[in-house]
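Suppose a colleague, Dr. K., hands you the sequence of a protein chain of 409 amino acids and asks what its three-dimensional shape might be. Before reaching for any lab equipment, you can write down a predicted structure in token form. Begin with the sequence itself:
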Amino acid sequence: MNFQNPFKLFLSFEFISVLSLFSYQYKNTHPFFTSFDVTVLLNLILIPWAVVLYVRERDRSNRFWSKEVLFFVAMAGWFLLSTLWSSSHSYKIQKALCFSFYTIPAFLMGYLVISNNCERLVRLLQSLLIFALIVFAETFRVFYVKGMGSIQDIMGTNYLVTGQTLGVGLIVLIVYSLHRFVDANRKTLGLEIVLGSLFFYGLINIGGRGPFAACAISTLVLYAVFCRYSNAVKNPLLHLVLFSTVTFVLCVGLNYLFHQQGSHFANRMMPLLNSIKADGSAMERLEFYQSAIKAFVANPVVGLGFGGWPVYHGLSDISYHPHNIFLEIMAETGMVGLLLFVAFLTVCVQGLSLGPILSSPLLVAACLITLFAFMNACKTGDLHDNMLFFFALSLVAGLKRNSISIKVV
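The predicted structure, expressed as tokens, is then:
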């Protein structure tokens, strides 16, 4: 991946967008970020900037009133309208404001501005990788300084947020590495495979089961699709073998260096396989799921209203959620909200075909990041916390719209 001038890249719309999308990763690293909401500050810059770029660069295929945007606006409008009948007082306002100022702009900027320009898409992936590399370096510094005897917070945030950051970095690395391997363009192949293996090691040791599982499934889907539909059938398998071998060797070596046995991922998976000792986190999630379903059955058409589930569950008027995007939408916005959400997802992916996807590393990366973020959204994150999912989906919809096929840059 040929990187642009770093100064130009760091001041680009795409890099600032990445800082906004992943602001939860570094919000606790400096008092300034805790005194002033950095996501709000960045969006105050990004939103007018995006309007200028859209007006300047739009073409006939890049319309605000496309069906993807119309379905998204209809869905978002219903979500916000549901605050009118929510039993929450303070959280519904917080949730509505965050969804309006974080999630809605993320989708619109991704669809109308970034996905419409090949150079912007390349800069976006470069920005994602650079940000992930910074977090990756801090992760290993924490491993070295504090040891690996417990679940680690990186940059003052929890393992789920860091797992999402490292997962996106790993996906970008593997996609570009695999495309170089298939195309026999192997200039930086060794470095990409080693970095990918190190990202893998970080993911299995920060403590999160969900992000690692989501990343592993997304990666296996990538290899399976390439092995089944790529003309160079042997190359993806060979790349997988090479990546797996390097990963195994590095994991063994790093475990010896850090005096670590196994991994936090394996340690946290064991209770799920133990029929005698129940896993507290899993049981809590199951309780949340059952509560959300009961809330939906009690209010099937319009739901509890935005932010209403915590009150229904007896958690008081606090910022919380059922840890599943479908159950959250069902419980708080009813069947109307669920149908609008499913229709929106369908419109965004409708018409995708494997041919254009496999020919473009940008579209492959966007699809894999969307799949990764979707699986994370099915187990954690409030609606406005799942900005990455809606943003990645906007890129897929935009790339599909433009039928862009881009070779590795």
